[in-house]
Amino acid sequence: MSQTINWYPGHMKKTKELIQSHLKLVDVVVELLDARIPESSRNPQIAELTKGKPRIVCMNKYDLADPKVTSLWKRHFEEEGASVELLDAVHGDGIDRLMRQIVDRMKEKRAKYLEKGRNPGPVRVMIVGIPNVGKSSLINKLVGKSATKTGNRPGVTRGKQWIRIRDDIELFDTPGILWPKIDSREVGLNLAMTGAIKDDILNIEDMAYELLRRMELHYAEALTARYGVEVDPTAPTIELMDAIALRRGCRRGGGEIDYDKVSRILLDEFRKGLIGRLSLEWPDDFIERRGAVDEDN
Questions:
Q1: Each residue's pLDDT tens digit, 238-297
Q2: Which of 44, 205, 253, 292 is the most exposed place for a label (fewest CB within 10 A)?
Q3: Model's pTM, two decimal places?
Q4: Sequence spans of domains, the chain
Q5: 8 a known binding residue?
Q6: Is 61 labelled a binding residue?
């Protein structure tokens, strides 16, 4: 990726305005990140947009990420002062922990209301995150069959709805929001490889090549186990891609390698977790701290 990605559909601009206009009604903000790319999936606008509100950072899809790297990221965010939860929203793992933390963050405020004889009302939660980070899965798990929509409440924009999760918690949803320009090559590739950016924004063969290059550096054993190929760190990455293509029958007429087909296989199987639990980025001091994590495990 040599140029800046400008990918800011109109609905994302509206989402930013929606967050700004409704934030005064919100008690707690849940910021959802992709555990495989915690930094790249962290919209830099969110911190400023939600400034002054209690915020919980949730690393979703942690079941797809390298657990050792995830533990480093969790520690990293906690050292920054963030409250962190690990989630697998598809299967509901971590949902109960998140709910408890939401309530805990508002205990003091609710107690003050009760002391004054006032009804604190339900805790109002806003979930924010970039596209394809798992917001829909999380919301579906939170809502459940017993939830009731409360969209006709005063002060709520027409067409937007507060959803009653339970008696003491209401949820306000926002669509996924990216930032207007992505001028970092690494961030753009990370978002593309995990599916946050549509596949037609970047060249799919370039994405797959970069993904394979990183996997051969950090997850050679996973590649061997999945594709039955030997990984030679001294050989060009294209040779490894060719070997996987041949193992999967990715040929065109005349026996040429079908790079489009093998690229789609690699990306699809990475995104589904079929190659293994893999992370694409880690804190800057990962190399120094990795040994300590290995010793702990």
A1: 999 999 999 999 999 888 999 999 999 999 999 999 999 999 998 875 444 444 444 444
A2: 253
A3: 0.81
A4: 5-173, 195-279
A5: no
A6: yes
